Structure formats: C-alpha cells, structure tokens
Amino acid sequence: MTKAFTDQDRRQHPRFPMRAYAKLTRAGQAWETHLLDMSLCGARLAVLDEHNLQPGDKVSLSVDIETLQLENINHKLIHLVGSLVHLREHLLGVEYQPASETDKQLLTLFLSQVE
C-alpha cells in the first residue's frame, strides 16, 4: 500500500504563518499580495485583484519587511525569484530562491524572528 503524501510531507522546510505584504511580478506585470505563510523556499499568497497567472510562470516576489519592525533587520524588502507552482482561485503557491546572498541572509533572519 502506498502512502498519500500531503503538501506538508513534500516540503523540505517548515512554513511559518504570517501576515505581510508583498509584490508579485511577472513579465512587467505586478500584483499586490498578502503573504499567508512562508518558508526558506516557498510561500502561500493571496492575490485579491484579477490576474492571468498560470502554474509554471516565472515570477519575482518582493516581501515588505519594513512594516514588521523586526529586530536587527534594517532593510525594507526581501527579493525572491522563482515560479508559480499552484493556483486555486486567489491563493497562489510560489517556490523561490533568494535573489542574492544578502536576500538569503535577510530571509533566514526574518523567518527566525517570526517563528
């Protein structure tokens, strides 16, 4: 008998629930989003505006961390690049990597403070 895997089983990194703003961009188009949960390599977002996004689209995500006023973080945004992995109405799943080494450090620090 084979085991049915859940999304949580397939994830390599734990997701942390949160409420933050982010901007999702694809090919010159941008959408304001609400970040619902996040890990080192993926996130779940809510996009309230109309969009034409499809699974597989290459996207960029800029997470606004300024409003969260976290200790030891003096940057305003974390920049991530990746692709849209699933879509259900206004909820999106994005898999990503930090855009730079600085973004990787910011993401690690950011997630360590929201656990």
Describe the structure.
- The protein has two helices and six strands; from the N terminus they run αββββββα.
- It has one domain: Thrombin, subunit H (Beta Barrel), CATH 2.40.10.220.
- Strands 1-2-3-6-5-4 form a six-stranded antiparallel beta barrel.
- It has 115 residues and is of the alpha+beta class.
- The termini are far apart.
- The longest helix has 14 residues.
- The protein is globular.
Write the layout of secondary structure elements.
Layout: H1 7-10, E1 16-26, E2 29-38, E3 42-47, E4 58-64, E5 77-88, E6 91-98, H2 101-114
Antiparallel strand pairs: 1-2, 1-4, 2-3, 3-6, 4-5, 5-6
What number is the mean pLDDT?
Answer: 86
CATH class: Mainly Beta
The CATH architecture term is Beta Barrel
CATH-derived topology: Thrombin, subunit H
Number of strands: 6
SSE series: HEEEEEEH
Tell me about the largest β-sheet. Answer: 6 strands, antiparallel, barrel
Write down the Rg: 14 Å
Strand content: over 45%
CATH superfamily: predicted glycosyltransferase like domains
Indicate the percent of residues in helices: 10-25%
CA distance, first residue to last residue:
36 Å
How many helical elements? 2
> What structural class do you assign from the helix and strand content?
alpha+beta
Number of domains: 1
Shape label: globular
